[in-house]
Design goal:
With 392 residues, the protein is α+β, with helices and mostly antiparallel strands. The chain has two domains: 2-186 and 301-385, Zn peptidases (Aminopeptidase, 3-Layer(aba) Sandwich), CATH 3.40.630; 188-292, Alpha-Beta Plaits (2-Layer Sandwich), CATH 3.30.70. The chain has helices at 2-11, 13-24, 33-48, 94-97, 112-131, 156-164, 213-229, 267-280, 306-321, 337-342, 368-385, and strands spanning 53-55, 58-59, 63-64, 66-70, 79-85, 101-102, 106-108, 138-144, 169-172, 182-186, 188-190, 193-197, 201-202, 234-243, 249-250, 253-262, 288-292, 328-331, 347-348, 355-356, 364-366. The protein has a six-stranded mixed β-sheet, sandwiched between helices. The longest helix has 20 residues, at 112-131. The mean pLDDT is 95.
């Protein structure tokens, strides 16, 4: 049974490469919503031919998602969810400037690793299960169109939480590591922006008439760093700071774009409270501060739970069947696994192709890993179907 499935996946190798080329050569950054929509419909047409029910939730002119569902043929099917994202970090025009290419071992192009190879692997995994009459489990596929920007303009985060609530297993097709490891924990992320307005004045002639927005922001940044330094589960970085127009001018405006990372769900409310308190405080009279961030539009942590460990053990065992060792790691970057894990669904992340250097012009995948990871995913889905569901 399994041998037939693995051979079918090998037979799809060339088709997988062709699909990957098609997806990579479509720009799908946030500045190209029509490209995201096109990617969604390429995926949707593929899944419609396999008997999936397909829908395209969207924010018109902003982003398109895709949700596809198909019932399994087992008597008591498990509920499986496969997730990922269709958007990339590369601006419109990149696909034309640097299209899909490959050599004997690797493939390159914008989003080839993060994560159009993961999408390709998922598509041919379900196709292989269907073609070999092994589509036993109910499968829901949800690929979002705005993951790279933390779903700032859509309800995708809530959709992940809602869809994952009753699932027996969730596999995120996010970028895999060169080593082939999978991810069981990720940090949460808040991306606050702080705007300070003051009063402009000449710093030599009339300093008393001014109120420095930069000085006020500096005090606030010091508070934020001190707060983060007191908790091992929280880190803070002020990544972008702007303000002022001249060295001899007291700045009327200053702003900061920051990045909080946090390891535990309980750290999130602490950060929210600290941000509010620090931004409500005034150090420099006659300055005003505005805090801009939405904790509902952010990544919550994916903690290394017993449920996630349970699913990892299944994946690990399937890796051994294929002669590969699958390690489990934690990483600092967020992903949509944070939502499914928080919803209580056993989740393993980074089931996508092996490769490195995502978000760079040198991003690549190992071509052999397209079929390797499809086999790993297919065997894992089958194994979940034959395993007693996780119980506390």
């Amino acid at each position: 049974m399994e041998e037939k499935l693995l051979l079918a996946i090998d037979d799809y190798n060339n088709e997988m490469i062709n699909m990957l080329q098609t997806l990579v050569n479509i720009d799908s950054n946030a500045d190209c919503p029509e490209g995201i929509n096109k990617v969604a419909h390429v995926i949707g047409e593929f899944l419609l031919e396999l008997g999936f029910e397909v829908s395209y939730p969207e924010v018109p002119g902003v982003v398109t998602h895709i949700i596809a569902k198909r019932a399994g043929n087992a008597k008591n099917p498990k509920k499986i969810m496969i997730i990922g994202h269709m958007d990339t970090v590369f601006p419109k025009g990149t696909a034309e400037e640097r299209p899909f290419s490959m050599d004997a071992e690797k493939a390159y192009g914008p989003g080839v690793l993060d994560m159009k190879s993961g999408i390709t692997i998922a598509l041919y995994t379900v196709k292989s299960l269907i073609e070999t009459d092994l589509f036993e489990n109910d499968i829901t596929i949800f690929f979002s169109g705005d993951e790279e920007y933390a779903h700032q303009h859509s309800d995708a985060a809530k959709m992940y939480l809602d869809l994952a609530k009753d699932k027996d297993a969730v596999f995120n097709m996010e970028t895999g590591a060169d080593s082939g490891s999978v991810v069981l924990s990720r940090t949460g992320a808040y991306l606050p922006k702080i705007y300070v307005d003051g009063i402009a004045a000449h710093s030599g002639k009339d300093p008393q008439k001014g109120a420095s927005a930069i000085r006020e922001l500096v005090f606030k940044l010091a508070d934020l760093y001190r707060f983060a330094d007191t908790d091992d589960n929280i880190s803070f970085n002020a990544g972008i700071i702007r303000g002022g127009v001249a060295a001899n001018g007291i700045a009327a405006h200053a702003e900061m774009e920051g990045d909080f990372r946090f390891k535990t769900v309980e750290a999130g409310p602490k950060i929210q409270a600290a941000l509010q308190e620090i931004c409500e405080k005034t150090y420099v009279p006659r300055t005003t501060t505005k805090l801009d961030y939405n904790p509902q539009k952010a990544y919550i942590p994916m903690e290394r739970t017993q449920k996630n460990e349970w699913l990892y053990e299944i994946v690990h065992a399937q890796g051994k069947k294929l002669g590969i060792e699958i390690a489990a790691i934690g990483v600092g970057a967020g992903s949509d696994s944070c939502f499914t894990s928080c919803a209580g669904a056993p989740t393993v992340c980074a089931m996508g192709a092996r490769g490195e250097l995502n978000h760079s012009s040198k991003e690549y995948i190992w071509l052999y890993s397209l079929t390797e990871r499809a086999k790993l995913l297919a065997l894992s889905i089958l194994a979940v179907g034959h395993t007693k569901p996780y119980e506390n």
